[in-house]
Amino acid sequence: MLRIAQALSSIYIVVALGLLAFSIRPAPEPVTISVVYGTEKREWLEDAAARFAATNPTVNGRQVDC
Asked: Whose CB among 12, 45, 52, 63 lies 3.0–4.6 Å from 30's, allowing a Cys bridge?
């Protein structure tokens, strides 16, 4: 019975350390979108970019900044 308890506690510690290792990794760099536009499209593009950013877009877990 003692050996089973020791084995289970060892497995628990290994799993806990594994989960901790995955949670510590740094956040991925964001994807940045740059757009060149003329003054006649400025108001429209800024409004569209604000609506797009409000959806909290991500690509493969990386935040998209525009």
From this structure: 63
- What is d(CA 49, CA 2) in angstroms, rounded to the nearest whole number? 62
The domain tally of the chain equals 1
Q: In this structure, are residues 64 and 30 in contact, taking their beta carbons and an 8 Å threshold?
A: yes
Query: Angle at Cα 52 formed by Cα 54 and Cα 22, nearest 5°?
Result: 65
- Give per-residue pLDDT as tens, 13-29: 988 887 777 777 777 89
Structural domain boundaries, residue 7: 2-65
Q: Write out the two tokens for 7.
A: 């084995």
Spatial neighbors of 39 by CB under 8 A, at least 6 apart, are: none
